[in-house]
Design brief:
The protein is mostly helical and 95 residues long. The chain contains two helices and two strands. A two-stranded antiparallel sheet has the order 1-2.
Length: 95
Amino acid sequence: VQTPFGWHVILLEDTRDATPPSLEELKPQIQQMLQSKMVNDYLEKLKSSAKIEIKEIQVSEAKPAAAPAAKAEAKAEAKAEAKAEAKAEAKEKKE
């Protein structure tokens, strides 16, 4: 036998007759396959009959809102700067 890895010799040691599984053994698998097919068919039917409408917005119309955290940080920085300036002025007045 030739494979992608080269030639190989295979020795057949035994043969057995394969017995097909009984209907009772296959019944759960068959039921599962049929249920799956029915669900998929139903979903495809729903998809094909659904009305899907996609509304596009203009990029110029959409304005991103500033993040609340960014606003809070800006306020905190402004307060810190004001305090630093006030301390510097008070220090200058004392001298």
